[in-house]
Amino acid sequence: MSWWNPFKKEEKQAGTATQEAPAGVPALPKELAESPEAKGMMAAFYRKWKDPAFLKQLRVLASHMQREGVNVKDMSAVKAWLEKHKDDLESGKFKDEPQPGQKQEMVVKSGPDVGRNDPCPCGSGKKYKKCCGAKS
């Protein structure tokens, strides 16, 4: 079994005229590899991705989503939020960071903190570090 070596230059097969993507740019899927529109979109995306103003706008949108309780790692939740706020996005409502007074939740402790060597609050009689504290 041969292992892939990232430092070894791969030999190009004769007769193939494939254009390689620049360093750090993933290759297009097979069905889009020959499409000039797809190549142009990928190039435009990567040019835009390096623009600081674009990155700032992404951070602003992410902060608005998190403020409303949207999990930004869940693509379906992000798409739903974007569809819900489509008109607001087009009108430019989300140009600035959300204000600190908007939908801020107060966190209230339910009881005193449990120390490592205190008895476990679950009632087992063991120390917290040997019982429920060992799980975290």
Strand proportion, as a percent range, falls in: under 5%
Radius of gyration: 26 Å
How much is the average pLDDT? 75
Low-pLDDT segments, ≥5 res: 14-18
Q: Outline the biggest β-sheet.
A: none
Short description:
The protein is 34% helix and 0% strand. It has 136 residues and is mainly α.
Give an overview of the whole structure.
The structure is a single chain. It contains four helices and no strands. The protein is mainly α. The longest helix is centred in the middle third of the chain and has 16 residues. The radius of gyration is 26 Å and the shape is flat.
Name some characteristics of this structure.
4 helices; 136 residues
Topology record:
Layout: H1 36-49, H2 52-67, H3 75-84, H4 86-91
